[in-house]
């Protein structure tokens, strides 16, 4: 009897203070393990391809692509974070309190940086569609790099403040040995939800509603234009509208996957975030990072072409960065 009880504990040597394992059928555990491992591997590989593509090929050095690069970096780290969920299949945390605090910090930073990058992408598309004549001067490569960098820096600083108590005293909110939980105070939790979710999502929705109206009017105008209109102008508008559609899919899918995560954190006066209770919504957010590169492959011919060059190792040839991708 004691042997059975000890088998259900994360740390059998601490009989009275150890957390209990999530006892589930072996087949279920294997299925979860295989699924999360597959998602993690695909997420890391595909986003690494996006990072290499945009970083290597000079034709892809555009403001919009630099923002997509920032998003791909966040998605790449999400793929690595899934490994921690694999460790937690049985509900036991064996990596120590400090690693638990750092795990949640990385999760918070990535989420915040992803949302911030989505706001930047929305602003980029807003200017490109609503003010195309001034787009080349308003949105430059250097400005896109600076904005993306600031987004990450602000996310790191802000989330360190939100999780300050947990970082100062790792494990203080654990209910038992083998638990991994953090507590976000009421004020910090409200600030996090407003600055990392409600505010950015509101900006994204408002901008895209305005862009949608302009895009529809431009599409109608192009259909009504006669042959005397210069083809260059029409093709340029078509290119921007196509980019708008593809990026819109990325943002809509992102919001669908992110909203359940924050809806859970809104419950309760103090948001007690344990890895077991948030497993589903976190995995949904993680899965979004796997979907983004697939969306790029579906809508962006340059990604399919660059991926082929990377897989076949043609990027190792001298001057490959000058290859024609577009």
Automatic annotation (TrEMBL):
SMART domains (UniProt xref): 7TM_GPCR_Srsx
Main location: membrane
A single GO cellular-component term on record: plasma membrane
Domain G-protein coupled receptors family 1 profile, chain residue ranges per copy: 46-296
Keywords of the record: Cell membrane, G-protein coupled receptor, Membrane, Receptor, Transducer, Transmembrane, Transmembrane helix
Keyword Membrane: yes
Subcellular location: Cell membrane
Transmembrane residue ranges: 30-54, 66-89, 101-123, 144-164, 184-213, 243-264, 276-299
GO terms for MF: trace-amine receptor activity
Membrane topology: Multi-pass membrane protein
A Pfam family that the UniProt record links to this protein: 7tm_1
InterPro entries according to UniProt: GPCR_Rhodpsn (IPR000276), GPCR_Rhodpsn_7TM (IPR017452), TAAR (IPR050569)
Membership in a protein family: Belongs to the G-protein coupled receptor 1 family.
Official protein name in the record: Trace amine-associated receptor 8a-like
Organism: Parambassis ranga
Source taxonomy: Eukaryota, Metazoa, Chordata, Craniata, Vertebrata
Gene name tied to this protein: LOC114426051
């Amino acid at each position: 009897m004691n042997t059975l009880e000890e088998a259900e504990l994360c740390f059998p040597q601490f009989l009275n203070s150890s957390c209990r394992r999530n006892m589930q059928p072996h087949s279920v555990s294997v299925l979860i393990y295989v699924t999360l491992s597959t998602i993690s591997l695909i997420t890391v590989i595909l986003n690494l391809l996006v990072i290499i593509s945009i970083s290597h090929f000079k034709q892809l050095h555009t403001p919009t692509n630099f923002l997509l690069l920032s998003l791909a970096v966040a998605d790449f780290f999400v793929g690595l974070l899934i490994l921690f969920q694999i460790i937690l299949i049985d509900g036991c945390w064996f990596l120590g309190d400090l690693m638990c605090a750092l795990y949640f910090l990385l999760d918070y930073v990535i989420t915040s940086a992803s949302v911030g990058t989505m706001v930047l992408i929305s602003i980029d598309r807003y200017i490109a569609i609503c003010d195309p004549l001034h787009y080349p001067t308003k949105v430059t490569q250097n400005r896109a790099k600076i904005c993306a960098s600031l987004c990450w820096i602000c996310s790191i600083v802000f989330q360190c403040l939100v999780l300050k108590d947990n970082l100062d005293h790792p494990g203080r909110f654990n209910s038992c040995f083998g638990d991994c939980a953090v507590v976000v105070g009421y004020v910090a939790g409200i600030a996090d939800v407003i600055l990392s979710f409600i505010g950015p999502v509101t900006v994204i929705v408002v901008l895209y509603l305005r862009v949608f109206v302009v895009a529809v009017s431009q599409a109608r105008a192009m259909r009504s234009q006669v042959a005397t209109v210069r083809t260059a102008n029409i093709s340029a508008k078509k290119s921007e509208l196509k980019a708008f559609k593809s990026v819109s899919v990325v943002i809509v899918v992102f919001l669908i996957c992110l909203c359940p995560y924050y809806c859970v954190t809104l419950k309760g006066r103090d948001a007690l975030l344990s890895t077991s209770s948030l497993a589903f919504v976190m995995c949904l957010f993680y899965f979004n990072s796997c979907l983004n590169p697939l969306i790029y492959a579906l809508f962006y011919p340059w990604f399919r072409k660059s991926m082929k060059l990377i897989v076949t190792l043609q990027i190792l040839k001298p001057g490959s960065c000058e290859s024609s991708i577009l």
